[in-house]
Fold this sequence. Notes:
The structure is a single chain. The protein is α/β, with parallel strands linked by helices. The chain is 41% helix and 18% strand. The protein starts with a strand and ends in a 9-residue tail after the last helix. The mean pLDDT is 97.
Amino acid sequence: MAKIIAVVGSTGVQGGGLARAILADPNGGFSVRAITRDPSKDNAKALAAKGAEVVSANLDDVESLKKAFAGVHGVFGVTNFWEHFSAEKEKAQAKNIADAAKAAGVKHVVWSTLEDTRQFMTPDDKRMPILQEKYRVPHFDAKAEANAFFSGVPSTMLVTSFYWDNLYMFGLAPKKGDDGVYAWAFPMGNAKLAGIAGEDIGKSAYGIFKAGQQYIGKTVGIAGEFLTIEQMGQTLAKNLGLGSVKYNAVEPDVYRSWGFPGADEMGNMFQADRDFEKQMMANRNLDEARTLNPALQTFDQFVTKNKEKIVAAANPAPAPVSQ
Ligand SMILES: NC(=O)c1ccc[n+]([C@@H]2O[C@H](COP(=O)([O-])OP(=O)(O)OC[C@H]3O[C@@H](n4cnc5c(N)ncnc54)[C@H](OP(=O)(O)O)[C@@H]3O)[C@@H](O)[C@H]2O)c1
């Protein structure tokens, strides 16, 4: 009988990638229990149509998770910082996943995490502000703190990377300026950013469940490629016919001052990626990512595959002019 994997975030990028990877491999020995708060949403229905069992549960309600995890072999756990922007809430939700997995006697949890950026700086380091009272990059640091909840559960800590999908999902694609030149701005200097196709995170998680025992108790960091913003711009220009992409390497303070929701969080994140480039790369292993997921995409492949979406994001429709 197939081993059931309960996939938290099944309607999203990471969990969706895992659910689709399992469903695409009917003889792989695993089946999907797709967790969502709303089984009637299109992404949940699409998984059901492909053979997933869709089960309703809420990360804020540990009892709902205990029911959803009953009888499963594995759990993929992910929390969504960007829905509420709260490190404390993210930790509480992660604790609920861990507690429910313990109660259900789950054999293998893969927890989607990131590193604690505070390890790179002394508490009195002034290069970036402290956010939410005690964090440098709350959505990184909180996930890393949450790792401790999983002690006592057979688990693998999966350290993920910046999704290239952010180009079209998070509005980060270069945009055409008044001078007709595409441009984008990041506080990354000439540092390399560890990036990955979002879909490949789920595929790697599937590789971990398939490998099983050998990954229990381990931390695995994955990325598709390490690239400078300049290199990414060159790939975009080449594949999308944008002419060239101008990179404005702004300072992190400037980026944080732009004031869009999460500007301080993202400014700190990119600064951590820039200032601690070597550590970020050391925490991620491209070869292991490819072993877990032989279909691991390069940025070039990702851009070619998602050309239309990225071009649309680079050329947003002008706002309607009011009469
Ligand atoms: N963007 C990046 O570059 C990047 C890189 C590394 C890590 N991350 C991390 O990835 C996380 C988000 O993952 P994602 O991108 O896969 O998510 P996503 O595509 O934004 O979708 C969010 C998923 O989380 C589920 N969810 C949220 N709140 C829930 C709740 N209270 N109960 C049950 N399910 C809940 C949603 O399910 P329903 O709505 O169907 O209930 C949905 O499936 C963030 O914490 C972020 O820090 C992002």
